[in-house]
Amino acid sequence: MKEHLFNEYHRLIKNIHQTDSYIFNYFGQKLAPFDLSVQQYVTLRRLSEVYPNSLTAGELKEKMNDINSDMTRLTDRLVAKNLIVREIDPQNRRRVNLRLTEESHRFVETVAADFKNFESIVSHLTDEEVSTMNTLLEKIRNQSVK
């Protein structure tokens, strides 16, 4: 049975959604041996970028791609796995900082090394196709902000 698509715009939205799901599942499978979700990995990578410094939950959320992520639940799970620590900010006791430990930083670097070839999912595209796709996707996101 052929699926009914209203028009090419509908087809585009369907394709973007299916591609997002495909990529998300691909990375989820790659992260499964490390007992990490995609959101947890991205969180650890963002904290790794500032290591040995820390970020507040608000700062971390700003750096995340997933604007709908529940930062408290996400960080609770990483704290439970001993991958991040929460610390009271000495300059502002109401502020809580999130930081990788030295051991978890090494763990993140190990996972990142295993992930070096993450571009393989799009490596069959030409440079021109990648550039065009990036331009178009950014145009969609920038227009929806207005």
Topology:
Layout: H1 8-31, H2 38-50, E1 55-56, H3 57-63, H4 71-80, E2 84-89, E3 92-100, H5 102-114, H6 127-145
Antiparallel strand pairs: 1-3, 2-3
Helix pairs in contact: 2-5
What features would you describe in this structure?
- By secondary structure, the protein is mostly helical.
- It has a domain of 83 residues: Arc Repressor Mutant, subunit A (Orthogonal Bundle), CATH 1.10.10.10.
- Helices cover 59% and strands 12% of the residues.
- It has 6 helices and 3 strands, in the order ααβααββαα.
- It has a 3-stranded antiparallel β-sheet.
- Strand 2 and strand 3 form a beta hairpin.
- Helix 2 crosses helix 5.
- It is elongated, with a radius of gyration of 19 Å.
- The protein starts with 7 loop residues before the first helix and ends with a helix.
- GO terms for molecular function: DNA-binding transcription factor activity.
- Pfam families: MarR.
- This is MarR family transcriptional regulator.
